[in-house]
Amino acid sequence: FSAISHDLRTPITRLRLRVELLDDERLQAKFSQDLDELELLVKGALQCVKDTDIHENIEPVDLNQVLEILAEPYLGDGRITVEGRALAPYPGKPLALRRCIGNLIDNAIKYGQRARLRIIDSAEGFVLQVDDQGPGVPQQQMEQVFEPHFRLAGQQQGYGLGLGIARNIAHSHGGEVSLLNLREGGLRVTLHLPRGSD
């Protein structure tokens, strides 16, 4: 598994070189985004094997841009709505944060058909609420869904590694991922990332 993940880096690098030769800048940007995502998946696979953090430096991350990229494929058919904006870049690990938020959005679409994203940002912290229209999670299993490959009864697929990885990434930034069943139905997953006092 580790070797395969490692080998995938070579064709990704080759594809990047080919993308640079494209004349259409918009197409170039889209291909680059997809390649970034592939690279992220490969790093993630290696991370699962090594059970270590993705080695990344902390840098200012434009979370608005991250959300734009992740939501873009679903905006056309109205499966995602986005409300609010990040007020300032967030000092974090760019690929890890993108993976964290991507997992939350993917889960909402996969299990809850739609995702309503709400951003609440302040000097204290960045908060992202992801509401879906799924069946929610039984109260007694709220913590278990963070375990790798845990399955809820009656579901063919588990939540996979998605939520657990998202929570680990949040923890590595001093933050948290929490769940809440909404009264009107659906699940709210909240990502909280604290901002320093500086």
From the structure above, extract its key features.
198 residues; alpha+beta; Heat Shock Protein 90; 2 domains
Tell me what the structure shows.
This protein is α+β, with helices and mostly antiparallel strands and 198 residues long. The chain has 2 domains: 1-52; 58-194, Heat Shock Protein 90. The protein is built from 5 helices and 7 strands, in the order ααβαββαββαββ. It has a 5-stranded mixed beta sheet. Strands 1-3 form a two-stranded antiparallel sheet.
The CATH topology assignment of the largest domain is Heat Shock Protein 90
Q: Which sequence of strands runs across the widest sheet?
A: 2-4-5-7-6
Report the total helices.
5
The percent range for strand residues is: 15-25%
Any low-confidence stretches, pLDDT <50, length ≥5? none
Major β-sheet profile: 5 strands, mixed
Q: From the helix content, strand content and strand pairing, which structural class follows? A: alpha+beta
Using only CA atoms, what is the Rg?
Answer: 17 Å
CATH homologous superfamily identity of the largest domain: Histidine kinase-like ATPase, C-terminal domain
CATH architecture of the largest domain: 2-Layer Sandwich
Number of strands: 7
Secondary-structure element pattern, one letter each: HHEHEEHEEHEE
* Overall form: globular
Mean pLDDT: 83
Number of domains: 2
